[in-house]
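Records of this kind hold a single protein each, on a pair of labelled lines. With that in mind, the following record should read easily:
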Amino acid sequence: QVQLVESGGGLVQAGGSLRLSCAASGRTASSYATGWFRQAPGKEREFVGAISWSGKSTYYGDSAKGRFTISRDNAKNTVYLQMNSLKPEDTAVYYCAAKTGNIRVRPYEYDYWGQGTQVTVSS
């Protein structure tokens, strides 16, 4: 079992930055690929990006490319989502999720989920 807890969400003005954290606990938590997803009201859960367990590979969704960066510190069992140049359309609840094996982009391919953290970008 892996437990995930997100933090770092909040209210930010357009053009600003936020860094989200995803702290993992449980057996071999650092050996899981970790994805970030977001869900706005009335919309489906959207893939933001993901990082391999080693941190050597990352993959981003179109909305994140060039603005967001995912990194991890396995010594701290924590994965980060650095978000820059935020836009009002980035407003959503952001979730981290973990899975064994390779990076995937679909929510159903992830086994463990955090509770989410709200990000609100004002115009």
Q: What stands out?
A: The mean pLDDT is 95. The chain is about 0% helix and 50% strand.
